[in-house]
Every structure is written in structure tokens, then in C-alpha cells.
Amino acid sequence: LRLLIDSLLFSKHIPYSQCKELIEKLEGLSNKYFKAKVKHIRNLPEKMPNNKQIFYVIEILDEAISKGKKVEFCYNDFGTDKKLHPRMSSNGKPRRYIINPYQMAATNGRYYLIANYDKYDNISHYRVDRISDIVILDEPSKKQKDLSEAINLPKHMAEHIYMFSGPSVRVRLRVHDYMMNELIDWFGKDFKIYPSAQEGMMEIVVRCNEKAMLYWALQYGKYVEVLEPAGLREEVRTAVTNMYEKYNA
């Protein structure tokens, strides 16, 4: 029960009122002594603006995936008023996305839809808490075998650490040898280790989404150097140079 309650508290997409209600139901499965131990959770503030349709969206997506049907929805972004607003079409009306849904996955405290945008044959990701006004269509979903890449969920999640869309690439990194905890936390055990000419360093080769690796390399920039591919190394260099110029102005 403690672990279930913590998973609700760590969630970044469940509205606070619904989170509190679910926690109270979980508490009801135990006794008064357990309730006393988790009393502090009632003081949690509202964590962030949220989508009140989140549970309905999950329910509809689950049904659509089970039935092999396409869905149509609005996809939203936060405005400066801190509220969700639908992305707009060129005609000034809310843009409607037609998607082939395949999986839902939880990572970094959020739910993501792994799907295919109907006009293309690659895999795309959508934040479930940014979806609204969803409906199931009568049209069957595109078969996964017709996509340009197969969906192997554990492998897919390991290679898309920030859930950016796009293909994975072979990345070679030079890292400090005390980085093993972080490497396994982010990439699992699916990477190769090679010795480095520099003392206290090692080189690793991992497959990862290129844009995600850019952000990861910047996050751990003090301890990580991208060696290959050359294009990614140049992107990191450009980003670091831009940051230096901002802070050195």
C-alpha cells in the first residue's frame, strides 16, 4: 500500500483532488495504524496545472487499443495563462489528430501514448495528459507490421529515455567509471563497455534516440563526452557554446 500511495504522489499527471481520493481508497484497505503513518500526505499542494479528462482519455485509449481502432483527439499545450489550449490548424480551428494507438507507457512520472500518426509510417509519442476531446473511430488501426519500425516496448523505452520521437542511433560516449549507476538507471544493461586511454574513464556504446541523447549529454555534461556520431557531437558543442555565451555576456 505504501508503494502504491507513493506512486500516486510521484505522478505528474493525476489531478490533486483525484490523487487524494485514490489515496484515501488505498488507506481504506488497511487499518488505523497504517493511516496514522501516512497522514502527512494530506498536506500536498497542487503540483501543477492538469487535464481533468486524464482518466477518461486513458479509458478510451485502452478500449481503442483492445479493439484495434483509430482515435481522434485534440492535442494541447500550456499557454502563458497556465491553462491547456488545443493546437490550432491554419484555418484557426482546433487541430484534430487521427492516431493509430498501440501502447501506453509510464515513464518519468507521466503516461505516454506510443502510436502512429496516420499520415506517416513511423512511431510517435503523445503525452496522455495533453490529450483531450478524444473519440474512437470505426476505422481499424494500421497494423504494426506496416510501420517502418517494430515496437519492442522494453527496447523502445530504453532507447527513448525522454520519449522523443524518431529513430535510434549508435552513440559512443566517454564517461567517468563511477557513472555506472546513472548509466544503468537510464539505459538498463543494454550497452557495451570499452576501455579508455584516459585514466578513470571508460567508453560505452549504446543505442538511443538522438534528440534524447543530446538532452542527456547536456544534463550530465560535466561527466560525459559524446564521441560519435559526429553530428550529435557537433550539436552538443553548439548547445554548450550557446550556453557559455549566455552566461558570459
The percentage of residues in β strands lies in 25-35%
Beta strands, count: 10
Low-confidence stretches: none
What is the terminal separation in angstroms?
Answer: 52 Å
Give the SSE string: HHHHEEEEEEHEHEEHEH
Report the major sheet: 6 strands, antiparallel
- Radius of gyration using CA atoms only: 21 Å
SSE class: alpha+beta
- Quaternary structure classification: single chain
Mean pLDDT: 83
Quick one: overall form? globular
Q: Approximately how much helix is present in the residues?
A: 25-40%
Structure annotation, total helices:
8
General description of the model:
With 249 residues, this protein is an alpha+beta fold. The chain contains 8 helices and 10 strands. Helix 1 packs antiparallel against helix 2 and helix 7 (210-219) packs across helix 8 (230-247). The strands form 2 sheets. Strands 1, 2, 3, 4, 5 and 6 form a 6-stranded antiparallel sheet that branches. 34% of the residues lie in helices and 30% in strands. It has helices spanning 2-10, 16-27, 32-37, 54-67, 153-159, 180-187, 210-219, 230-247, and strands at 69-78, 84-86, 96-107, 110-117, 124-127, 131-140, 168-176, 192-195, 201-209, 224-228. The termini are far apart. Strand 8 (192-195) and strand 9 (201-209) form a beta hairpin.
